[in-house]
Amino acid sequence: MWRVGRALTLTFVAAVLVASGVFYGLAVLLDVQQIDSTTKLDAKTLFDLVKLSFGVVAGAGALVALVVAYRRQRVDEAGAHREATRLHTERFSQAVDKLGSDSPAVRLGGVHALAGLADDAPDNNLRQTCIDVLCAYLRLPYSPDPGEGPAHLEEHHHYLALREVRHTILRLISDHYRRPHGTRRSWQGCDLDLTSVTIDGPMNFSGAKFSGGDVDFGGAVFSGGRVDFRGATFSGGRVDFGDATFSGGSVDFIHATFSGGSVYFGGATFSGGRVNFGGATFSGGSVNFGDATFSGGSVNFGDATFSGGRVYFRGAVFSGGGVDFRGADFRDAEFSDGTVDFRDAEFSDGTVGFRDAEFSDGTVGFRGATFSGGTVNFSDATFSGGRVTFSDATFSGGSVNFSDATFSGGRVTFSDATFSGGSVNFSDAVFSGSTVDFRNTASPAPQGLLAAVGTPTPAEVTLPSAWLLPAP
Question: What's the predicted TM-score (pTM) here?
Answer without folding.
Answer: 0.74
